[in-house]
Amino acid sequence: MPLATVGLVLRRLGLGRRAALDPKPPVIRYERERPGELLHLDTKKLGRIDGIGHRITGDRTGQSTKRGTGWEALHVAGDDASRLAYTEILPDERKESATAFLARALAWFASLGVTVERVMTDNGSAYTSHLFRSALASHAIRHKRTRPYTPRTNGKAERFIQTTLREWLSASPYASSRERTAAMTPWLCDYNSRRPHAALGGQPPISRITKDNLLGNDN
Fold it and tell me: Tell me: the pLDDT tens digits for 184-203?
């Protein structure tokens, strides 16, 4: 049989690369016992909004000459045991923004009686910077980083970002970035205090926090 035909059949079956033949490593699921043992941090780059786009309006007038409006970054912090989450939208993903976000996230969790012991991040330059490491050291927090090319190690943060994309970021046709940011706070409050979470037996994340405190969130 010609090699080209063999290659065509393998690609059709999704086996065109040798990596597809290697057995996938088993998924190791874990959950920390108490809030604060491990905090997952991650970011998601977002395109700025200066109006409702053609995908909703159907109007492509001026689309080819319009310049990009730039980017901003969603920073997320999620507690492994309780799934409580804290988020902010910041101008970028640089070390100064990531470190300032860390400080505010730690303060928010502390207001709920949660003391963070470990932080897990990927190997992005902001998280490996001296500034970020120093901030962790000043709070006596251990830094755990994911293995290279294995984003699933920080899977809880990844899944939370997917939830935000589905339930908040893409839930409405926002007319501006400011409008999108304003919608974040009520959505996150609902996520933390009312929305049932499958991994928590249908209870919201706040159910795993013993301290009675009103949830809030900075934007």
Answer: 999 999 999 999 988 888 89
**Burial grade of 195 (CB within 10 A; 0-12, 13-18, 19 or more):** middle
Q: What is the pTM of this model?
A: 0.76
Domain 33-52+68-208 architecture:
2-Layer Sandwich (3.30)
Q: Are 70 and 50 in contact (CB under 8 A)?
A: no
CB-based contacts of 102, cutoff 8 Å, min separation 6 = 41, 77, 119, 132, 135, 136
Phi, psi of 32 (to 5 degrees): -70, 155
Q: What does the pLDDT look like over 81-132, one tens digit per residue? A: 999 999 999 999 999 999 999 999 999 999 999 999 999 999 999 999 999 9
Residue of 218, 156, 157, 162 whose CA lies nearest to 189: 218
